[in-house]
């Protein structure tokens, strides 16, 4: 097995590795969520739905997920990246950047010219990474209301 980083499309057999990687993030455990995402993005995949994994020496060490979305809130078609994780042992080695560059390249091939995402203000590492990838505040803002 090569020690070189490989960015590839996710396969149905990657599900357990994705769930395991997701457990290294500050979010809640959500195995059922990932099963649904795999069904939608991997099993029934389309060109405008992208689920990539980073693999090194036969082990999945990262993933990134995105899609093309159009006309929500008047926004013309654009790429959305909504999930990203890199194994804590593989961080600061360019894995996230290579995955982000690859998903942006694939999104651009679908015809979009903008990529968007959202990040939790409390997740400083994620925000720092996204800013280093060139993401800035866009023309839309998120608004929320807590429902009791």
From TrEMBL:
Q: Does the keyword Transferase apply?
A: yes
Q: Which organism is it from?
A: Geotalea daltonii (strain DSM 22248 / JCM 15807 / FRC-32) (Geobacter daltonii)
Q: Which keywords does this Swiss-Prot/TrEMBL entry list?
A: Acyltransferase, Transferase
* Organism lineage string: Bacteria, Pseudomonadati, Thermodesulfobacteriota, Desulfuromonadia, Geobacterales
PROSITE patterns annotated for this entry? GNAT
Q: What is this protein called?
A: Acetyltransferase, putative
Which is one GO molecular function term here? acyltransferase activity, transferring groups other than amino-acyl groups
- Domain N-acetyltransferase per the UniProt entry, residue ranges: 5-148
* InterPro entries recorded: Acyl_CoA_acyltransferase (IPR016181), Bact_Acetyltransf (IPR050832), GNAT_dom (IPR000182)
Record Pfam families: Acetyltransf_1
